[in-house]
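Incident log, structure service

09:12 report received: a user says their structure output differs between two submissions of the same chain.
09:20 pulled the input from the user's history:
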Amino acid sequence: MFYTFSTTGVVNLLKEHYGLTVTAKELEGYDEANFHVKDEQGNSWICKIAGESQHPAFLDAQVRILEHLAKRDTKGRFQQVVRNMKDEPVTRIATPEELYYIRLYTWLEGQPVVTVKGTRDLYTSWGSLLGKMDKALEDFSHPAMHRDIRWDLAHALDARDQLHCIKDPEKKRLAAYFLLQVETEVLPLRHRLRKAYIHNDANDYNILVQNDLVSGLIDFGDMVYTQLIHNVAIACTYAMLEATDPLEAAVAVVKGYHEAYPLTPEETDLLYYLIAARLCISVTTSAEKAAAGSDNEFHFITENGAWKLLFHLITINPLAMQQAFRTACGFAPVINDTADYAPLLAERKAHIGRNLSISYKEPLKIIRGALQYLYDDKGRTYIDCVNNPCHVGHCHPVVVKALQQQAARLNTNTRYLHDHLVDYANQLIATLPPSLEVCYFTNSGSEANDLAIRMSRHYTKQKDVIVLDHAYHGTSTVAMELSPYKFDGKGGFGKPEHTHKALNPDMYRGPYRADDPQAGEKYAADVSGIIAGLKEQGRGIAAYICETLLGVGGQIPLPPGYLKAVYAAVKAAGGVCIADEVQVGFGRVGDAFWGFELQEVTPDIVVLGKPIGNGHPLAAVVTTRAIADAFNNGMEYFNTFGGNPVSMATGLAVLNVIKEEGLQEHARVTGNYFMEGLRKLKDKHAIIGDVRGHGFFIGAELVRDRNTLEPAVPEIDVVVEAMKQRGFLLSTDGPLHNVLKIKPPMVFNKANTDALLAHLDEVLSSL
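09:34 re-ran on a clean worker, output below:
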């Protein structure tokens, strides 16, 4: 709280208790009243007035630590305590309303570092001052510093209690992610770190500068007994806030500190997460104050800078920062830039099936994921533009915690009752049309597609299935039989007799193009023709299965009216309509939660996978009551892991995140922005023949000639490799392997989009 004292009252108090004749000017403060006072001779002091909320023992600790430092500091870098006329360091003032405590300290000359331009020498001197101070405090102790305060990084996880005050979903997610990393990386090692009595707030207002070097440190109001490295982490945080090169600034602080007071590798290795912890405490505290209606500028003084730095910090590979700090201190490196992956590749070749492919000419060894970012073992950061199973972001904190907590309680098969199973089924069904009301849970999209076909055959008593040419529906035996992408490809077994290929409704390359308003009906007529041909043979149709936007078929949105006409023909023939939403669903298309909604149809069976568990092995089949009843023919359906409590908790978390963070709308807005940017590149670069998609399901087809549509291969491979070198992970798709596939995690943002488009522009120009 703040204390109301007039400048006249302060002048009178200092005259009465200190024998000083001064003038006073009130200063801003966080939780004390502060006055800059001067006498006629030009001497200056700072007068601090605290209320009863400040414990006298802690005020005594502030006095003792300054007196301790004064004995060891010959350069006047710390304030000195001025005692009153009774030789007391703290003056006690009793009023009818409250008890107050006055302290008077010498004034330190200098500018707050926040007002000057940072240099490497300045940052080094910042660290050096702290190192010398902490070395001088090795033999200091005070019981009042053994306390619990919000600003102690040892209690950083308490900031989770204020996360709900952050209204922006992206910011809330970012802070929660870093707090999860603090729990994962710091908490298990905290007990092994050196502890000390530290200042705990060497921020850019408390550090003073003269002649471009740090000259002093003020305000010991946040001091605490905690891990020594926290002092360094806090200094690094504030050095980084406004630095042109934040990492360089932090490295200089660490170097200066280490030269004055040696650190250990174990301490420096945690600095990345401790810096993040300080920022999280800051932004959650500001959010809490805003929610409470505070108008105190001090509560928000670093908020914007802290958010900016958090967004920057996640783009830095933690290993790169760890290496930089180790180098500054002369410790052994953690990155071996000269090492190759030959031994690992040899082991993989020896014991892993060789037809499991590896992306990129130079393989990546990814060691961590952070929302839309991936970190490799060389210290490089990549923006993930294609890893759609991690739907709501790599290591999303809400999903991770749900999975962890349930795994710590119970995981077993579904022959026992468990609330998560029915809770998840109910929430999943709530996103679907009313007729889709019965759920079956599996472990993968392949398994789910296999089950969907099995169910359709039970229901119709038929076997024949219609698929789209170039379609891919999974790796199980049945799913492979539905996948021309596989059975017509190298090593394929050819089209099975009971599988029938319909025209790929490609409005860029197919016989009916985007300028044909009847393209949807014309492509659908091909399906009707297959049904008619089967009927002539005395055969019926079990199912028609189709991705609601075509993935390996070329990132192709279906023509308007296509599924409506197809579904009508299939149902008229007694067949079942299966929507494969494995790559498409859960809000990715932006304009709808499910891809089939874009076509204004309702399937009889919907198959879900990939994004459903954010990378956790989970998939589902949801169908009508009639089909489920037909499938219940006496043979038990049992899946050891399908629907287990951990998977259900994970699925629930993903659904909740999509809803609470507004990710469907985010995909719509950002996806449209992305495609608009790609179309502008198309106007500039003739190699881009077509840009298509919905939301975060985007394809850009590259051609050598827009008239002949000759595929730009191997040019597209050059583009993908060049973008990888620039930190963007893309992939190719389509029957001719000439379509850039863009299906990022749903947390991909406009800044990521702008960066990708700028680099893609440069790469295409270089071709």
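09:41 both user submissions now match this output. Likely a transient worker issue. Closing.
09:42 reviewer note: The two ends are 63 Å apart (CA to CA). The first strand starts at residue 23 and ends at 27.
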